[in-house]
Amino acid sequence: MFPAYTFFKWELKIILKTGGTIINMLSFYTIFVLLFPIGIGLEKNEISKIAPTILWVGSLLSVLIALDRFFLLDAEDGTLEYLSLSKLPMETIVLIKMISHWLTTGLPLTILSPLFALTLNLSLDSYGWLMLSLFIGTPALSFIGAIGASLTISVRRGSLLLALIVIPLYLPTLIFGIQLIELSIVNENIVPPLLLLSATTLFSLAISPFICAVAIRIHWKYQ
Questions:
Q1: Contacts from 33-41 at CB under 8 Å and sequence distance 24+?
Q2: Within the chain, where are the H helices?
Q3: Between 79 and 214, the higher pLDDT residue
């Protein structure tokens, strides 16, 4: 328990100390949300209709740009291999890295989402559902993203390949997250998309550490 907690604190400290990725992610999200309506020239009423899509796609792309360094730097400087010699199983190490990634990507986006929703004229009644959908759904973006990052760990400048791997896997989360907000706007039953979104996140949480651990071990075997 204590080694896991110590590694968790160390991982968060490293991420926050080298905060360029977080700043880039939030900057991209801000630019995307603010400029997208201007680019397509919609009126306020029309913008509010597609606000859930804009907010969710912006969140997805923002998390995506923070994935390429998920394991890459630790693999290049030998930190990941050193960690494998510790008492922690590789699956636990991956799980801690996934949680740390979400805490510094998905969680800030969730907290700031009402501010951006205000600029898109989203119905005030849907703000709670917006935050709930992002709170439940964005962990899946980090968990699934970790799979793509582990599969491309040996590929130099593999950002494009990483995007090609994870974007199709992100579609269920994206669809259910948007649908949850849209149904809340029209006061319809939000339980089905809420359950499906939760199931997607829990399923990705259950399988991602094991897939990532296998991919990393294969990378060490054939590098």
A1: 33/58, 33/116, 33/119, 33/120, 34/116, 34/119, 37/120
A2: 2-17, 20-40, 44-64, 72-76, 79-84, 90-103, 106-119, 127-151, 159-185, 191-222
A3: 214
Q: Which of 207, 206, 211, 220 is nearest to 83 (CA)?
A: 220
pLDDT tier at 12, thresholds 50, 70, 90: confident
Q: Closest Cα to residue 118, out of 129, 126, 108, 109?
A: 126
Say if residues 47 and 120 touch (Cβ distance below 8 Å): yes
Angle, nearest 10°, between helix axes 44-64 and 20-40? 150
Q: How far apart are CA 63 and CA 79, in angstroms?
A: 23
Neighbours of 69 (CB within 10 A): 17
Q: What is the C-alpha end-to-end distance of the chain, expressed in Å?
A: 32
Q: Which residues of 199-210 are buried (b: 16+ CB within 10 A; e: fewer)?
A: ebbeebbeebbe
pLDDT of 59 reads 92
The pTM assigned to this predicted structure is 0.90
Q: Letter for the amino acid at 39?
A: G
Do residues 165 and 155 lie in contact, with contact meaning Cβ atoms separated by under 8 Å?
Answer: no
Report percent pLDDT > 90 for the chain. 42
Report pLDDT for 174.
95
